[in-house]
Design goal:
Blueprint: E1 20-25, H1 33-50, E2 62-65, H2 68-77, H3 89-103, H4 129-139, E3 150-157, E4 162-167, H5 168-171, H6 181-188, E5 198-203, E6 209-216, H7 218-221, H8 225-237, E7 254-259, H9 272-275, H10 280-284, H11 291-314, E8 321-324, H12 341-356, E9 360-362, E10 369-371, H13 379-399
Parallel strand pairs: 1-2, 1-7, 2-3, 7-8
Antiparallel strand pairs: 3-4, 3-6, 5-6, 9-10
Length: about 400
């Protein structure tokens, strides 16, 4: 069924207001429960301000996500039959909690049943049929063009060796990118060694077939915040009237909330002395994790955060940028795929505890997150402040029709 994006609840264009609002969610497998917990808290704050029907898609011009963050972004912006968000932020967290064990189960390797540790030599750790089925059930026939707000989801095409970004902005002029939400979500979560690559095809308005051979967008952009800003910048460059008042592009006009999925930096689990003995297997299998994938995704997320921190601080607009991340995870909680009931509960607890921690920013010299210490309070208090800014921005736009 075709959806129409025009409705009374839709956020008016940035040209009507003072800010461009962006929500970005990192990839991280089952650790996506952490940002999902934070998003539930943010949506609750918005509901206190604007009523129980308030949804995150009503307040953000762009919602970007990689990996599990891509699933979250798609769920938050997907429409129901009444053209309202199909899922609340609490629904998203419940989905990850309820279905996490189904997604990360059932090794595809026949050899794994005989020699557990060597199964990944012959195929991905998980078959991927569970996540495919669940996402197809959730999204049905919904496509990228149906989203209630702009969505940006990075993937990587292993056939063309280039990042493939599914963007609501691009799909308006390139119908070949109008893929099913389920296919996009399966592709962006297909982490190497964990889940198999995802192949699918689309047809453009003239019937020409385009093929996709996708793996996890985290190999290119585990933190998609910079890509989201880039997509908005392209609209400014194209002189899109919805964004022209903000030309030239200026981070002082951006309100950005960027959510990480946690890391294990303080655990210091790897060392050069240990890694110097690793061959192919050592880099792919070590202590129940995949060091090579973990290093790629962590460094990708960190570099984006460092870049944005420098820019926002240089423009004296750091108060418009909220990065909520925890690099102190240890043990199973730092894993991308351990989905025991105990670990799922611990991930929820990690998200709740993160809300109580002070606002932190990455130290540009050490790369470690440190408390800001300038009166910004806890992450929970910062979310309350940002909720008020988002609510005010929405009201400003509604009072300034073009």
């Amino acid at each position: 069924m075709e959806k129409c994006r025009s409705n009374a609840n839709q956020l008016p264009s940035p040209a009507n207001g003072d800010l461009i609002t962006i929500l970005s969610i990192d990839g991280g497998g089952i650790r996506g429960i952490i940002p999902a917990t934070i998003l539930a808290a943010l949506e609750s704050e918005l509901q206190i301000l604007d009523g129980k029907k308030a949804r995150l898609a009503d307040y953000f011009d762009v919602i970007a996500g990689t990996g599990t963050g891509g699933i979250i972004a798609a769920m938050l912006a997907a429409p129901d039959e009444e053209n309202r968000p199909l899922f609340t932020a609490s629904d998203v967290r419940s989905f990850l909690l309820d279905k996490g064990r189904a997604i990360f189960s059932k090794s595809c390797s026949k050899l794994a049943s005989v020699a557990k540790g060597f199964g990944a030599l012959w195929g991905p750790k998980y078959r991927g049929d569970s996540i495919c089925r669940l996402l197809r059930e959730k999204f049905g026939s919904l496509r990228l063009r149906h989203m209630l707000t702009n969505v940006v989801i990075p993937t990587f095409d292993i056939k063309t060796l280039r990042a493939t970004i599914f963007s609501s902005f691009e799909v308006k002029s390139n119908s070949s990118m109008d893929a099913l939400l389920s296919d996009i979500s399966i592709g962006t979560t297909a982490a190497p060694t964990y889940l198999p690559p995802h192949y699918f095809e689309t047809k453009d308005s003239e019937g020409k077939v385009k093929e996709f051979n996708l793996i996890d967008g985290g190999v290119a952009a585990n933190n998609p915040a910079l890509i989201a800003i880039g997509e908005v910048s392209k609209e400014v460059h194209k002189r899109n009237p919805k964004y022209l008042p903000h030309k030239p592009m200026d981070c002082r006009k951006i309100l950005l909330i960027s959510l990480g999925t946690g890391g294990a930096k303080v655990e210091k689990r790897y060392s050069a002395r240990l890694a110097r003995r690793w061959g192919v297997l050592g880099w792919l299998l070590n202590g129940g994790s995949t060091p090579l994938v973990e290093i790629f995704t962590q460094s990708s997320a960190d570099m984006v955060d460092i870049h944005l921190s420098v820019v926002f601080q240089a423009l004296r607009s750091e108060s418009n940028y909220l990065r909520i991340e925890d690099d102190t995870l240890m043990g199973n909680v730092a894993s991308a795929d351990i989905s025991t009931e105990e670990n799922l509960e611990n991930l929820v607890r990690a998200g709740e505890e993160l809300l109580k921690k002070p606002v932190s920013r990455v130290n540009l010299d050490t790369g470690v997150y440190e408390p800001v210490g300038n009166g910004e309070g806890t992450n929970e208090e910062a979310l309350t402040r940002f909720a008020k800014l988002l609510s005010d921005e929405r009201k400003i736009r509604q009072l300034r029709p073009l």
